[in-house]
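[job 0412] stage=complex_fold ligand=NAP status=START
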Amino acid sequence: MLCPYPKWMKQIELGSSGVKVSSLGIGTWAWGDNLYWGYGKGYGENDLQLAFDETLRAGIDFFDTAEIYGFGKSEKFIGEFLRIAAQRDGASIRDNVHIATKFACLPYRVTKSSLLRALRGSLKRLGVSQVDLYQIHWNFAAMSIETMMDAMAEAVEKKLTRAVGVSNYNVEQVRRAHKRLAQHNIPLASNQIEYNLLQRGAEFNGMVETCRELNVTIIAYSPMRFGVLTGKYSPTNPLPGARGRQFSVAYLAQIEPFIAELKKVAQKYDKSIPQVAINWVMQRGAIPIPGAKNLKQAQENAGALGWNLAREDVEFLNEMSTRVHAAR
Ligand SMILES: NC(=O)c1ccc[n+]([C@@H]2O[C@H](COP(=O)([O-])OP(=O)(O)OC[C@H]3O[C@@H](n4cnc5c(N)ncnc54)[C@H](OP(=O)(O)O)[C@@H]3O)[C@@H](O)[C@H]2O)c1
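[job 0412] stage=complex_fold status=DONE, emitting structure tokens
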């Protein structure tokens, strides 16, 4: 049976929702997305299936997707790979996998029923009757936060999702979502935000404290800063495609000294740069969901588990990353 839960695997409850997931997840934005990630060029369906199986094999049970990833392809891949795994390893595999997906706040979606309709579409593509976590993908919505949370409460009542989360919400929006859900006796389980060694805004804008106060789990997306924190990109080897426009050669030159320090820390532990970047996020109390496009990346990212950066190294990396920010 897949997903044997290695004995060091820590399970983390999403807020007080009762949903417990592995302390490391996997992000699947790149699964089927050719606009940003270049699906079909350098990686394809077979690579993704190998990454899926490897993730379960390593005991990682938390998959993050969204209806807009690859315009539904990411959800379809997860559904298909899960179906194949269940046929191969037994139907109970479904109980060991936790799926989080997201509602896209498109401008024409203005009613509660549009959220429930979107969720049913995701369930169909995923081939499941319920997801573990349904999240509002971003904060610009034609619906108020209160209306969306009322719709989320209905989704929980109808057993379409076990828990409710948000994403890219600021402190005030988290408080509003939390307050409205509380009126339905439902906890806000999580806020999914970019959080990594080079994006630590949550530590300085009150998000970390607020989430701690309200018992909302932070799910950290892009823990390798979209690939920047892997050590393989540099001013002479910039990121490809859309990512190259997002992270300029000047930016890569500026963070080069930091990447060099990160590499030294990785060498000290006999780990890779991605493993250290992901481990750092876990040490900060968030659940990282690194993206992986193939078996090798899934394997390497799973190697962020089972060991811990020492406190002095976390502090050293904090100090180094603060210096990069100060220089910007
Ligand atoms: N809620 C939101 O608004 C939001 C936004 C962004 C992401 N997310 C979620 O967070 C997940 C992760 O974020 P992300 O995919 O943007 O960024 P990431 O995890 O920081 O980086 C992922 C990319 O880094 C490269 N990579 C991964 N593992 C590697 C390894 N071991 N060695 C070398 N390169 C490696 C791969 O791209 P290359 O090989 O092409 O470099 C991979 O696609 C997404 O899949 C998605 O589920 C959510």
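Residues 279 and 305 are 7 Å apart (CA to CA).
[job 0412] exit 0
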